[in-house]
Amino acid sequence: MNNVSFSLFPNENFLDLRLYQYGWEQCAPLHSFGPFIRNHFLFHYVISGRGVLDSTPKNGVTNRYYLEENQGFLICPGQVNTYNASEKQPWKYVWLEFDGLRASEHLSSAGLDISQPIYRPKTPAMGEAVRDLMLYIADHSEASSLNLIGHLFLFLDALIESSATRREFGGAQLRDFYIQEAITFIEQNYQRDLTVEEIADVCKLNRSYFSKLFKENMGCPPQEFLIRMRLTKATELMRTSSAPIGEISTVCGYPNQLHFSRAFKKRYGVSPREWRTQNKLHSRG
Description:
Elements: E1 3-8, E2 18-26, E3 32-37, E4 41-48, E5 50-56, E6 63-68, E7 72-75, E8 80-85, E9 92-99, H1 103-109, E10 118-119, H2 124-139, H3 145-162, H4 173-189, H5 196-202, H6 207-218, H7 222-240, H8 245-251, H9 257-268, H10 272-278
Antiparallel strand pairs: 1-2, 2-9, 3-8, 4-7, 4-9, 5-6, 5-8, 7-10
């Protein structure tokens, strides 16, 4: 029988980063979870024992990874995955499910994405720091929302610093200024028809150079970031209001509800209506 702790995060309006659920579990031998598709990023850290992850990226080819103590694995939104505990050394892991406009950027900085889901720390001590921050969140469900979100930021910082696959980016202040200008402009104008050319013009940059700069810093092209912002705003409205989905799609920059539904399903793996139903309750890790 599994020994498990599981908590849900309150419905708070955090857009850069947001927790959904978190916990830890000592799995029984051969305990299996999946095949399953997540709506958000889900990261597991293996505290002890061993297990196997079967991960299917967008190319449809399933990759198998064997994991052990002090390693971790990432599951991305819309990705089919299954993971199983070892028969002789079943794993104990802690997990966080999270998302937000900056989630992909931070994970990309750690060198983690759908094609490279395995986390290995540079040193055991650095990995243990990641583990301890995750366990703090898992064991403090009574803490305030700001406290838990603060620890989510600390977890991601530790993940980036400790990751053996960390990606190094230059720290030019002017470049950072351009990106912040672009993000601010997108935040203020995502509801209307917006092009990459227009965003680049605001930054006084060539479109191709701007797109390259943005992707290097944010982990995704500007058009994808705009889509994520619109869909993130939509999930918050579906969560906190009873407005019809057609009305929400228009408010979030999709006057055509069919286009909204297609973009939403591509991002989250389910239709907006299904997502709204599913996210009244969350399934554990």
